[in-house]
């Protein structure tokens, strides 16, 4: 396998996913540098990770010492230039093609190792679009983690027509051998495997609420008790974030033009109203 074993990781964004990915990397002994655009966002990201590590200690999954060590391995920056020596970078900022493309353009100039893995945690944007923003698309790959990252054991690995075998092997080895995640491979099409199946289901649940066919609570109860899902589709939409579900639906609709993927008006109105789900305190349910 080409390249040294990955120990220096960069994470772009410390929202729910970036924080979760940074946490699992730090817990797996990597040196982790996290980018956020402002000090305030970096401080919020750090507290999010520390809260999750505390939760690990109180549930007996981590010792106090392991929590301390993981927190020492985490550093924050607002300068992408600090990512020059990273062997793996995972981008986890908002699901917006233009914003992600700009980050990949900059990262490509900064990261020096020709075999470094430049990964996106995008839920739906075809990875080739990000690869083509760089001079060396062979380094670009999708590494799609699942929410909450410390709990869910899957990474979808998305290689493009341009991703090199060395880079995909390096990414897989890191996800599997270092983080202990199970890996499935997907071709590069919007939604990959999981969201191609999950998102139409979430959108159908929103359409059910919209039509008055059943209540939010009953739809969720039906899927939890009738199908043994850990949470119902509307609670899950709240967990993922309504803005993110809308953005995923938009990308999938753009790719396939299937009415199934088109975001229903109720979802659009809730996003416009700032009811983004758990992260904003209100979505289909109220939090906090
Ligand atoms: N960080 C760390 N640990 C967490 C956690 C978090 N954010 N949330 C929950 N946990 C841990 C808890 O510590 C607990 O561990 P123990 O059993 O060892 O104590 C365990 O997970 C269960 O948590 P809770 O008892 O608090 O709550 P729960 O049983 O209701 O589970 C859940 C919460 C893990 C979120 C569970 O409901 C679940 O798995 N839901 C489905 C989530 C899902 O489908 N995610 C995929 C979304 S799609 C996606 O991610 C892709 C995309 O692109 C949009
Ligand atoms: P989030 O809203 O929790 O965090 C968004 C992050 O993007 C924050 O770090 C924020 O500071 C940053 N950001 C926002 N606007 C920005 C801009 N203009 N420029 C640079 N950074 C900006 O979102 P999230 O749930 O962590 O999702 C992040 C990525 O992970 C998305 O691509 C999403 O599709 C993907 N993803 C989400 C989930 C999920 O369940 N939420 C699961 C898997 C993958």
Automatic annotation (TrEMBL):
Signal peptide: none annotated. Keywords: Oxidoreductase. The keyword Oxidoreductase applies. Residues 191-287 form the 3-hydroxyacyl-CoA dehydrogenase C-terminal domain. Residues 9-188 form the 3-hydroxyacyl-CoA dehydrogenase NAD binding domain. Coiled coil: none annotated. Pfam families: 3HCDH, 3HCDH_N. The keyword Oxidoreductase applies. It comes from the Bacteria. SUPFAM superfamilies: 6-phosphogluconate dehydrogenase C-terminal domain-like (SSF48179), NAD(P)-binding Rossmann-fold domains (SSF51735). Belongs to the 3-hydroxyacyl-CoA dehydrogenase family. This is 3-hydroxybutyryl-CoA dehydrogenase. It comes from Gordonia cholesterolivorans. The lineage of its organism: Bacteria, Bacillati, Actinomycetota, Actinomycetes, Mycobacteriales.
């Amino acid at each position: 396998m080409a390249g040294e074993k990955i120990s220096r990781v960069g994470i772009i964004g410390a929202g729910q996913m970036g924080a979760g990915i940074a946490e699992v990397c730090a817990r797996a002994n990597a040196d982790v540098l996290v980018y956020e655009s402002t000090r305030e966002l970096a401080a919020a990201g750090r507290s999010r990770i520390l809260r999750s590590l505390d939760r690990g200690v109180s549930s007996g999954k981590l010792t106090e010492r392991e929590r301390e060590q993981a927190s020492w391995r985490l550093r924050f920056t607002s300068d992408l230039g600090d990512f020059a020596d990273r062997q793996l970078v995972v981008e986890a900022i908002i699901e917006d093609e233009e914003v992600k493309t700009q980050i990949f353009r900059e990262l490509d100039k900064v990261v020096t190792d020709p075999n470094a893995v430049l990964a996106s945690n995008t839920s739906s944007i075809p990875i080739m679009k990000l690869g083509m923003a760089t001079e060396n698309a062979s380094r670009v790959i999708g590494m799609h983690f699942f929410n909450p990252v410390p709990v869910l054991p899957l990474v979808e690995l998305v290689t493009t027509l341009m991703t090199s075998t060395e880079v995909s092997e390096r990414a897989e080895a890191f996800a599997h051998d270092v983080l202990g995640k199970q890996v499935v491979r997907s071709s590069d099409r919007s939604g990959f495997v999981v969201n191609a199946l999950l998102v139409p289901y979430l959108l159908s649940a929103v359409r059910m609420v919209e039509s008055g066919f059943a209540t939010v609570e009953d739809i969720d109860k039906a899927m939890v008790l009738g199908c043994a899902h850990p949470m119902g589709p509307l609670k899950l939409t709240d967990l993922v974030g309504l803005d993110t579900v809308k953005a995923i639906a938009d990308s999938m609709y753009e790719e396939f033009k299937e009415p199934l993927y088109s975001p229903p008006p109720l979802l659009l109105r809730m996003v416009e109203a700032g009811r983004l789900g758990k992260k904003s305190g209100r979505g289909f349910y109220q939090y906090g």
